[in-house]
Fold:
Amino acid sequence: MTSSTPEQPAAVVARLRATFRTGRTKPLEWRTGQLRRLRAMLTEHGPDLAAALRADLGKGEAEAYRTEIDFTLREIDHTLDHLEEWLRPEPAPVPPHLDGAEAWTVYDPLGVALVIAPWNYPLQLLLAPMVGALASGNCVVAKPSELAPATSAAVARLLPRFLDTDAVAVVEGAVPETTALLEQRFDHIFYTGNGTVGRIVMNAAAKHLTPVTLELGGKSPAFVDRGTDPDAVAARLVAGKFLNAGQTCVAPDYVLTDPETAARLEPALARAVTALYGDDPAAAPNYGRIINERHFDRLTGLLGSGRTVVGGTHDRDSKYIAPTVLGGVAPDAPVMGEEIFGPILPIVEVADLDAAIGFVNDRDKPLALYAFTESAETRRRLTDETSSGGLGFGLPVAHLTISDLPFGGVGESGMGRYHGRYSIETFSHRKAVLSKPLV
Ligand code: NAD
Structure:
């Protein structure tokens, strides 16, 4: 169903729940069949979807494939390869007082899941949770982001042509439509976006005791240790930060380093920006645009928070902001007061590792923490002494491309996790079974 057939939220959920009750979504064949259909949609309509992503975010085709279309295909293939094994009942040891009994767990699908996606990776962040929900045998209501209207329209048009429309519905819309959806009783709500709306979602879910997964954001720090090769670090930081024009939930938000390392890193960052995007990033095919004027104005308002090392230029008509590095940024500068979510990389100077760990622990738990260091002891201390959704040494962003790793936040960066088998844990109930013969 799409918004062109204005079915009311209550009717959508009732229709899907009726399908779930028939048991049709439970067999492995239905689940793998839906995943194969989703796979076909992505391969047959890759160019249409890439065009929609370009219209919404100025995403280059290669980046659209790498971070959205092929990313989702990999998640589908990994799930198809392992689903049968993941769903196998798992035996549990039985204590002596239940001698003669057997015990095991099975995964029950939950029912009807709601997936609410944001605009920054509007395809991947809608479809990757759906892969888990369908693989777990659920019906799904998919709510794409209204701030990425071309992608929203494309999935609303394509998904019903490929998937079982009695089990999967797309509801397009903004706050009123999402609010109406959230009044319904779902069996799981999977929300990706900001913490303010995350709280609205959790409140709505509480009314029905519906479990939630909240994939939120925050400021993900990148610690750069003394003695690291500045050009090697800069190349990785620039690639991770300016991907999708910085509008990536796990992008390094800011750099924490000592003054000497900062002095060597700053020119290296400028060289790395030129190496990746040329002298005029506005003309680079692999550099995106800001989603809308509101975010453009918010971001340009942060450019004065430090000394411009590279970038700083912008153009409102095309929503272009150059890849920008700011040096000597004070911890209380405006750019440090909120998740940047755009192409601005501030460098905050701290005395040493102890100060960096203190800085991180004084703030909200981030979605990711990154560190560039040659020291095993520094890696150990960061692992043991900080808390974050994920931890990346030497390479930002890429941990989320490993399907066998759980992806999710902690504290202000969210709750719950998904990808691969962790999606099955999220979208199923692990049921305990005990069986003891009567005689
Ligand atoms: P957004 O504005 O597209 O909102 C996300 C969804 O919430 C949309 O579908 C929207 O319709 C819905 N929504 C908005 N206001 C609502 C309301 N009042 N009531 C009900 N629903 C509402 O996206 P956003 O929040 O700007 O996304 C950016 C944030 O998402 C950043 O903080 C980023 O870090 C985070 N994020 C996290 C992840 C992750 O996987 N953890 C991934 C991407 C983005």
